[in-house]
Specification:
Blueprint: E1 15-23, H1 30-39, E2 44-49, E3 53-58, H2 70-75, H3 78-94, E4 106-112, H4 117-128, H5 141-145, H6 149-158, E5 164-168, H7 173-187, E6 192-199, H8 205-214, E7 242-250, H9 251-256, E8 263-272, H10 282-296, E9 305-307, H11 314-328, E10 335-337, H12 340-343, H13 350-358, H14 361-364, E11 366-367, E12 391-392, E13 398-405, E14 409-416
Parallel strand pairs: 4-5, 4-6, 9-10, 9-13
Antiparallel strand pairs: 1-7, 1-8, 2-3, 6-7, 8-14, 11-12, 13-14
Helix pairs in contact: 3-6, 7-13, 10-11
Length: 419
């Protein structure tokens, strides 16, 4: 085929990753997260939340006050704290001279599935103790619940005076945050971007109750085995919190400062099913992957790893597998894995966080496995599916990252090893 599209772009239009900061239920840095994925360590544990009661969840355990004061953490939100931690860690890993960076030329683009439910539920619970007298309603409620809160808290913490906003894209939001940053960098609106996704979902009882009423909340006597995409006995989603933020730059700027380049973003696509509130559409998901490949100028056979969205729901996993088969069934070198089996579904953070877990494969040429897959569902049988143990491969040059969400939003992001 012809030269990949991105190779023909000037360096001012090529976008690269130069920093990563994350917190996951099984690690608070890329190194810790990657080690857990290769060692098969789950971050899912028992959890209890008011009204709903005992359940299971993916819970993060990062140092909240590493990059913000106790006062600011109390005034803000859990999603904001996650974003602040991840963005500062990403900045440190990027090696950027932050003191001498023009903050007016920095953008913050953070994906979220939902925001504000935690704070509203908490305030209603609090005023219940005072016979629902709203004079006891906190004056912090409005800034905590506005949709731009997580990105705004990052901007406040870091002194960013360029644009900041969140991207509400259901569970495709982590990918969508990255795509937005790529577009703004190419347009010249900013020179540096913090992009990714965050989730505080485990702190709202409503999300557990909602999934339970759908029959879509996972249960298992062993919490670490509850999230089991592709398994014949899978029975739903494990709700998780988490976050992942990347530093993105134009290639010419990154070269100019001698940055260590982690990967290049070479293709992406976002489309819509327009068929159902929650049931995915395999045809549209396949089209999304094909659009991303076309934008990158790549054939399916050139993709080394497909990171699946699969959440552990019976219909969702089967339909995504049908979409992957349509695109990759004839690709003998494409390997397929899943990170939710380790951490559960981190909602708005999922796309960005799951991509991060695969990026070290560019160097170590190891594909992390899917765990908890004891009996493969025939509907989920895929050529190249890696499960149980990590797989050493000859080379990893391209990774395609799937992330899909309710109301039929689909996203696919392609990154390349930089050389």
């Amino acid at each position: 085929m012809s030269q990949p599209v991105f190779n023909a772009l000037p360096e001012s239009q090529r976008i690269v990753i130069t920093g990563i900061g994350l917190t996951a239920p099984n690690g608070n840095s890329l190194g810790e997260f990657r080690a857990a994925l290769l060692e098969g360590r789950s971050g899912v544990q028992p959890y209890e939340i008011r009204y709903f009661g005992k359940t299971i969840a993916g819970i993060c355990n990062f140092e909240v006050t590493r990059h913000q004061s106790k006062k600011d953490a109390r005034r803000g939100t859990r999603a904001g704290s996650i974003g602040i931690y991840c963005a500062n860690e990403a900045l440190q890993s990027s090696g950027i001279d932050w003191e001498n960076t023009d903050k007016t030329r920095v953008g913050v683009y953070i994906g979220v599935t939902e925001h504000g439910n935690v704070e509203t539920e908490t305030e209603i619970y609090n005023i219940k103790q005072f016979d629902y007298d709203t004079k006891y309603w906190t004056h912090h409620h409005n800034p905590r619940t506005v949709a731009n809160n997580p990105a705004g808290e990052i901007a406040l913490n870091m002194g960013v005076t360029g644009p900041h906003y969140t991207i509400g894209a259901a569970c495709a939001a982590g990918n969508a945050g990255i795509v937005q940053a790529v577009q703004m960098l190419r347009l010249g609106e900013v020179d540096l971007a913090f992009a990714g996704g965050v989730s505080e979902s485990i702190h709202t009882f409503g999300i557990f109750a909602g999934f339970a009423s759908q029959g879509a909340l996972a249960t298992h006597e062993d919490p670490t085995k509850a999230s089991r995409p592709f398994d014949k006995q899978r029975n739903g989603i494990v709700v998780a919190e988490g976050g992942c933020v990347y530093v993105l730059e134009r290639l010419d700027d990154a070269r100019r400062r001698g940055a260590s380049i982690i990967a290049e973003i070479v293709g992406y696509a976002i489309n819509t099913d327009a068929t159902d509130f929650v049931l995915p559409n395999a045809e549209r998901q396949a089209q999304c992957m094909q659009m991303a490949l076309q934008r990158a100028g790549l054939a399916p056979e050139q993709i080394d790893i497909v990171s699946t969205h699969a959440t552990g729901t019976p219909n969702g996993d089967s339909l995504e597998c049908a979409a992957i088969r349509e695109v990759f069934d004839h690709s003998e070198k494409t390997w397929i894995n899943n990170a939710k089996s380790f951490i559960g579904h981190s909602m708005g953070a999922a796309g960005a966080l799951e991509l991060a877990g695969n990026l070290p494969a560019f160097q170590d040429r190891v594909v992390h496995p899917t765990i908890n897959l004891d009996e493969l569902d025939p509907d989920c049988a895929l050529r190249g599916l890696v499960y149980g143990q990590p797989r050493e491969v000859a080379d990893v040059t391209y990774i395609l990252n799937n992330s899909f969400g309710m109301l039929g939003i689909n996203s696919a992001l392609i990154v390349k090893r930089f050389s």
